[in-house]
Design brief:
alpha/beta; 6-stranded mixed β-sheet; 6 helices; 10 strands; about 20% strand
């Protein structure tokens, strides 16, 4: 595969984590979690187009143990619980710009989605065009606001359907809805600098399988990921 020199690959991995302590370097399937994203990025890009964003020296050292240079360290003021991905990515872009690293799009690979496949990343890259704000992986939503999502009406105190008239009697008849999976994002750098993520309206959806989109936030999520990895490793007839 020819290496992608048009994109900047960003792997965000702060040291703090409450749901799963130290999860970015916790062993999953026998290796630190962050290595899954590093290995995926290296399938597509040369090392000088891959930037690990962390404030944590142990995470940086584990990343360096793969041979990947980690010259950039995230500023501490961008390492808190309430700092958004956009601010973190823009700081990486500022670093890249200052060091002569050129790119026309930014691919975000969060370590918490280790089950993504190369096909998922490729599909997002192929969907990207310069006139969009972002491409993101999505899965079919577990709940549907036309069918089984309700809100409480402040005037009456009673539940009402979130969207539509509530007359669908079969889920398959309701309009299909999707939810972002978080496993792959491809951003327009100009849009990142000009808009908050919620203000980006020119979005393209890349539909992926739910088994590649497990987001590791709780111990239960971790157990699911371990199970999926074991299933992948089982020989097939």
């Amino acid at each position: 595969m020819d290496k992608d020199t048009d994109s900047l690959y960003v792997i965000t991995a702060r040291g703090g984590s409450k749901g799963i302590p130290r999860k970015n370097i916790k062993p999953l399937g026998g290796k630190p979690l962050i290595l899954y994203s590093i290995e995926m990025a290296r399938l597509f890009a040369p090392d000088d187009r891959i930037i690990v964003s962390t404030e944590d020296e142990e995470i940086a050292e584990i990343s360096r143990s793969t041979g990947l240079p980690v010259p950039y360290m995230r500023p501490m003021h961008l390492a808190g619980d309430h700092v958004g991905s956009r601010e973190v990515i823009i700081d990486v872009m500022d670093y890249a710009d200052a060091h002569g690293i050129t790119y026309d799009k930014v691919c975000l690979l969060q370590p918490t989605s280790p089950l993504r496949t190369a096909a998922d990343v490729r599909a997002c890259l192929d969907l990207y065009t310069p006139d969009v704000d972002m491409v993101t992986t999505v899965v079919t939503a577990a709940a549907n606001p036309y069918y089984d999502c309700f809100e409480t009406d402040s005037a009456t105190g009673f539940m009402r359907i979130s969207k539509g008239d509530g007359l669908y009697t079969r889920r398959q008849d309701a309009p299909q809805v999707v939810q972002t999976s978080g496993s792959v994002y491809v951003f327009n750098p100009k849009s990142l600098r000009e808009k908050r993520l919620g203000e980006m309206t020119r979005r393209k959806a890349c539909v992926v399988d739910s088994t590649t989109s497990v987001d590791l936030d709780t111990p239960f999520d971790w157990a699911v990921a371990e199970t999926v990895l074991r299933m992948r490793q089982q020989p097939t007839d």
